[in-house]
Amino acid sequence: MTAKYENVHWENRDGIAIITIDRPKALNALNMATMKELHALFAEVAHDETVDVIILTGAGEKAFVAGADIKEMAAMDTLSGRDWGRFGQAVTQQLEDAPQPVIAAVNGYALGGGCELSLACDFRYASENAQFGQPEVKWGICAGFGASQRLTRAVGPAMAKELLYTADFIDAQEALRIGLVNRVVPQKDLLETALATAKRIQKNAKVAVRATKRSVLAGQDLDQRNAIELEAQYFGICFATEDQTKRMQSFGKKK
C-alpha cells in the first residue's frame, strides 16, 4: 500500500486512513519530495471508497510538521518561490477538498507549512507538547500555503494577524483557548482520541457526512442566503439515498 512512498505512509484501519508524514530526523519538514508524495497520496486516499475518515499526523514525538525545508527555499527566486507557494496551496486545497472528514492529530511542532497543513484539515486535536506558529516573516517571506486565509477563518482576523505579524509560537492550551484546536490530550492518547472520534463519525451515514462537509466548506465562499440554499440542495440529495430510507424506517420501527 505504501511501497511507492519514502517520506509518507498510510494504513487503512477498518475504514479510517491514518496518514503519517515520516521524516522524524528532519522534524517531518516539507521538502519538495515529501510534498509531491503527499500530493499523490492525498489523491489516492480521497478516491478510496473504503475510506470513511482520514487522520493526518507526523512520525515521532517532537513534530507534526516543523515547516517547509528552509535549505530548499533559500535557493528560490521570485518565480520559483511563487511556484512553490502555488504547489503548496494545491496540496493543502487537495486535503481540504477530500470528500472524507480529515482530523489533524498534531503531535508536536506545527509550524509554517505544518500549521497550514493542519489548517486544511476539518479540525485539529493536539498533544500537550504541541506548538503552533507561522514564523515565515522571520525568514523574510510571508505565509505561502494558505495561512493568511485559513488561519483567519479559524481564529478570526485580529488573532490571525497577531500570529502572522509577530511569528510567535503558541502552545497547545493557548491554541485551544483561541479555537485553533478542539482538544488537547497527553501525547500517548492523541492517536486513540482521534480514532475514537473517527469511529463516531463512521457510525453515521457516509453520504450525509460528506454532504455536510461540502455544505460547510462551499458555504464559506457564499453569502448566507445562497449558502443555506446550497444546504437545501444537499439536504434533498440525502433523501435519495438508501441510508436515509433504512435509517428513518428503522427509527419508525423502534417507536
Automatic annotation (TrEMBL):
<protein>
    <submittedName>
        <fullName>Enoyl-CoA hydratase/isomerase</fullName>
    </submittedName>
</protein>
<dbReference type="InterPro" id="IPR029045">
    <property type="entry name" value="ClpP/crotonase-like_dom_sf"/>
</dbReference>
<dbReference type="GO" id="GO:0016853">
    <property type="term" value="F:isomerase activity"/>
</dbReference>
<dbReference type="InterPro" id="IPR001753">
    <property type="entry name" value="Enoyl-CoA_hydra/iso"/>
</dbReference>
<keyword id="KW-0413">Isomerase</keyword>
<dbReference type="GO" id="GO:0016829">
    <property type="term" value="F:lyase activity"/>
</dbReference>
<dbReference type="InterPro" id="IPR018376">
    <property type="entry name" value="Enoyl-CoA_hyd/isom_CS"/>
</dbReference>
<comment type="similarity">
    <text>Belongs to the enoyl-CoA hydratase/isomerase family.</text>
</comment>
<keyword id="KW-0456">Lyase</keyword>
<dbReference type="Pfam" id="PF00378">
    <property type="entry name" value="ECH_1"/>
</dbReference>
<dbReference type="GO" id="GO:0006635">
    <property type="term" value="P:fatty acid beta-oxidation"/>
</dbReference>
